[in-house]
Amino acid sequence: MDSAVGDIATAKELLRTSLANCTAFRTWDGNDWTVDQAKARIYLDSLPPPARDSQDYTLAELEAYHPFAIVAEPDFDQQVRWMASASNFDAFVCSGVLLVMFFRTVPDDVLDDLPSAQREMDNFIGQLVRSNDRNSPGLLELSGQAGYLRIYEIASTYSSFTHPDERPAIGDEQRHGLVVRWGLTQ
Fold first, then answer.
1. Which of 38, 43, 151, 185 to pair with 65, CA 20 to 30 A apart?
2. Domain limits of the chain?
């Protein structure tokens, strides 16, 4: 992957780095990933293309990716904007909105108990956003520190399970989305 250049790519990469450094992400679904291993599970804009010459992933390919996250610009709202600083019109503040989508296979032990699966996801997202422990940081504990994205607001936007009609193609998948509002200064 090319290096991030410019505000948009830099914001995505900083959010990816922030997520990979969150204890909740590194231990998601019982994993014990290093920061680099976690970062490899966070994709920018989409999953890599299917392994074979096809437009569609096989069920096995999709399940092999789980759990993972995708950082992308949402198709709503003002994704990125540059505004002159109120105190210095030669300096600009860049801010925007990114969407983080989380995907996992519903664990077998809660497959027949979707409220428990939802509780697990809610607990994961809650710890990922704010752990209240700087030794096991969440996104808000890292926000604004050197090397991490400055986050102004996080909103949970959706949570869902695979519809039964989709299970043959994508399996028993659980999804959750976060909208992240961020800002950079120049």
1. 151
2. 6-185
**Residue from 127, 110, 130 nearest 172 by CA:** 110
pLDDT band at 185 (very low <50, low <70, confident <90, very high): low
Residue 43 neighbours by CB distance under 10 Å: 19
User: How many other CB atoms are found less than 10 A from the CB of residue 79?
Assistant: 15
Q: What is the pLDDT of residues 164-176, one digit of tens each?
A: 788 878 888 899 9
Our CA angle for 56, 61, 67, nearest 5°, is 115
- 92, with CB counted inside 10 A (0-12, 13-18, 19+), is middle
Backbone angles phi, psi at 127, to 5 degrees: -70, -35
The distance from CA 121 to its chain's CA centroid, rounded to whole angstroms, is 13
Place of tokens 């999709």: 62
